Amino acid sequence: GCGNSNDMFAIMSSYAQANGPEEGVLLDFANKTALLGEPFKQSLKHLDDHIKYGPPDEFTMTNEGISHCAVLLFLQRRCALYYGITNGALLDMPYDMYKNFLGVAALPGSKKILDRSTGKLKECTIDTCPHSIYQEGLGLVNYAPAWGPTNWVGAVHAGKGQVKKQLMKEFFALVGRDSMSDVILNTTVRKLIPNPHRRSHLVVDDWLAKGYDEEFAESYITAYESTESLNVAKYPPVEGSLKMIVALESVVYQYVNSTRGYGNEAIQSKTEAALKTTLEAIIDDTGRDIIFSQYEKYLDVYKEPSTDQYLNNGLRVYGLCLSGAVLLTSFGIVAWMRKYRNEYVVIHSQPQVLKVALCGSVLMGAAIVPRSLDDKWLSIENCNAMCILYPWVYFVGLGTMLSALFSKIERIILIHEKPNEGLSLHVSFDELKKSFIFAVVPNVLILLVWTIFRPNHWERSSLDDDVDEFASAYPDTVGRCVGDDANYTIVYFVLLLYNFCISFAQCLRLYNCTQNQKVSLDNFEDKWIASAIMVTFEFWLIGLPVLLLMADNYSYDYFVEVSLFALTALSSLAFLFVPKFFYLRDKLRNRGPFAEGVSSEQGYKIRSDDPNKFLRTDDNTDGGEGLLFRSLSLGYNGVDESDNNDELRKRLIVLEEENRNMKHAVDELEERETEAIPPSMFSQVTT
């Protein structure tokens, strides 16, 4: 019998450790937890077999603990079996007292090893047990010789006197010498030996010269030599280790005393769970980081912890400045539209449609803000939310911008397709709504599916995946938004592909429609809308490959992405509004403020190769270039439209009738190309 905590550690080691001391036995420093599980329960089974054949009074024969029972059994010349990782109390007696009765052997190994991914024991292979030894009839056997919890180290204090320094120097020279004359004690001395600490101390002849018999000397030296292994198991000499030893001793004693060698799996599992709870509490009370850093230093595998890298403050300021530039530009344009709300160029461009486009640009610029935040400022949960938020904000904003442009394109195409129907350039709410559904809803659906099934999340990863085992520190880490199976890149690609396809299709329709046009649009936008759309996707066409190439560099990735967000928003605003700014500037320089009523939309002219077809109507025609159909007038200079609804309705009715008469006159002219125009019709047209 005589089982103790050292027994458990020595037995567990060959089940738990196969790849060197850096794996650990009692503590798993890879996961920073107590390591028990199957190795511990399997060790309890060994103790069951051990205790089963022990003496009935094994646990009552001494008050000094079960580790001393073997001494009493040997003194009484009774049979005893003792597992130990040091000489301990067993050999705390003169050799002559148990000469010819004591045998020493290396602790057996294990054919199974712990799979730390599953927590189960599995058969040893050359890959899972690289330090195993092949034994005939057994196969591969894993050995993890256990080193005891006590070691010694010496140092001389620099502040002590010269005499004390010299004495300490001589002492270290004594214990470190090759000679065995004073290391191996005589057989009559109470203590057997102070553990051999040099290879030169393990010479059989030297032991024989001191009076030890050859069989004992060879077995003893062979047992010591077996501990020289690359897979040696080291007892963790860390802060709190004494409490762990006491807890382990107490649990083992309670188990063997209660089961007396007849334990079962249920009791073993309960014992393992109780001990793990106790060890985890000790670890938490002492300090988990303190214990495991000390353990790693003891195993000589300690590396300085990695440093968390965050987004460079200069880059963050750059991104936020871009966001501010987009937002200020958008709100500045709103103020400009408000100031010149009664000017022809503003009312003609339909402020309600332009405001939709500005809402899109605001969202595109605002997406930079959540993209600029990291776990330096937010919790991990909030960072996860930001990873999901910013693609939503940008692509909904892009879709909103495109919906405003598409609504204008659809109206222009309709006028080109039906030039003789006197259609207005005014985009109705229903048309704007259809364009919004067409451009925004698919983006929302794609983002919704992505968010539900495979959303992005915040993750810190090493800057260098290839960690040098001899490095003194772990590589620095950086946090970023990542998705499983590169789904983030796929979603980006799908969203951009959809928006590009619908935009290209709209621009192509507009181009084909205007090639053989019968209508000349006298407005401020038709030649800039397609440019605004295509330049946006030219930026992405260039930037997306760069973004993919820079994906591994967090700083470059951020720089490229926020630059794309800002450039696509600002370029669209530039093509939409800069021509209007110059137009208004030139008009104000040439004629000052408008004094006449203004139109909500520019008119358009029907083209013809025959000069005889053209009629002059009023000053709105350009030198007989075409017959102008005036669109509906919706306001007066300096007068708030909301205060003049009744008067506007009356004027609309008159102008609608005028347009119908003018269209009818053109139809008549086309039928009578060679005939003279009747005076009555001329009068009708000019009215």
Description:
By secondary structure, the protein is mostly helical. Helix content is 52%, strand content 7%. Residues 190-194, 592-643 and 676-687 have low confidence and may be disordered.
SSE diagram, text form:
Elements: H1 5-16, E1 27-28, E2 33-34, H2 37-52, H3 69-75, E3 112-115, E4 120-123, E5 133-135, E6 139-141, E7 146-147, H4 162-175, H5 204-209, H6 214-225, E8 233-234, H7 241-259, H8 265-286, H9 288-298, E9 308-309, H10 313-339, H11 344-348, H12 351-366, H13 368-371, H14 380-417, H15 429-453, E10 457-462, E11 477-482, H16 487-515, E12 519-521, H17 526-549, H18 554-591, E13 598-599, E14 604-606, E15 627-629, E16 633-635, H19 645-671, H20 679-686
Parallel strand pairs: 7-8, 9-11
Antiparallel strand pairs: 1-2, 3-4, 5-6, 10-11, 12-14, 13-16, 14-15
